[in-house]
Amino acid sequence: MSNLQIAVAQMSSIKGDVDENIKNHLIAIEKASQIGVSYIVFPELSLTGYEPELAGSLAFSTDDSRLKPLIDSAMEKNINIGVGAPLKSDGLPKIGLIIISQVGTVDTYEKMYLHSGEEAYFNRGTNHNCITIGNTKIANAICADTNNSNHARTCSELGASVYIAGVLITEGGYDSDTAVMAAYANEYNMLVAMANHSQPTGNWAPIGKSAIWSNTGLLASASENQNALVVAEKLDGHWSGQVIEI
């Protein structure tokens, strides 16, 4: 595939309002499909907001009827979608990425490395997840996964040339967290992308500034509070980036 577009969606989530959050996701998906994006990923727990106390009651399964509008959109728009949501599990739920393919199949990735305090509300996942679009293998990650070098290293060893994460990053953690992501892009010759929330969620104040890096450095970054797509395009083997308002 000589031309490939990957996007991260920077947006806000309404506490516990899955229906309204899905409506906002669909707006971003529509925008991404208009410019030919093949895979769009949303922030951590984007369908519910980062609300650990609500995760058990709002948790999703892969056959959840609430996903139907997203599945219909993926098929209609011919786009692969990764949305953040708590996932049903034995015992505590898991922090998940629900991956909906352009043909309507549903897969999941479960966050493997938890932030301190999350273990009171969530179990951790155990398996990496990659999807393949054309001849490009894309590894999925969620927030604290990106702070563990073993995670990115294993994804590279699995053959991924793109590493993409839905996150919740505040001002205090932004510089250190993004320095790690930029280093992965350089060390493993991977495109690295992260989708952050643009407004407060739970008891946190995310700083936005969703961004994408290649081995040459920062390609594009959103501002702090805008709702936007950060898009990377691979054309003839070279990545470029842009920010598009939603």
Q: Provide the CATH top-level class.
A: Alpha Beta
Summed up, the domain count is 1
CATH architectural arrangement: 4-Layer Sandwich
Class by alpha and beta content: alpha/beta
- Strand order, biggest sheet? 5-4-3-2-1-12-13
Q: Give the amount of beta strand, in percent.
A: 25-35%
Structure report:
The radius of gyration is 16 Å and the shape is globular. A hairpin with a 2-residue loop joins strand 12 and strand 13. It has a 7-stranded mixed sheet. It has a single domain, classed as Carbon-nitrogen hydrolase (Nitrilase/N-carbamoyl-D-aminoacid amidohydrolase). It starts with a strand and ends with a strand. Helix 1 packs parallel to helix 3. The chain contains 5 helices and 13 strands. Helix content is 23%, strand content 31%. With 246 residues, the protein is an alpha/beta fold.
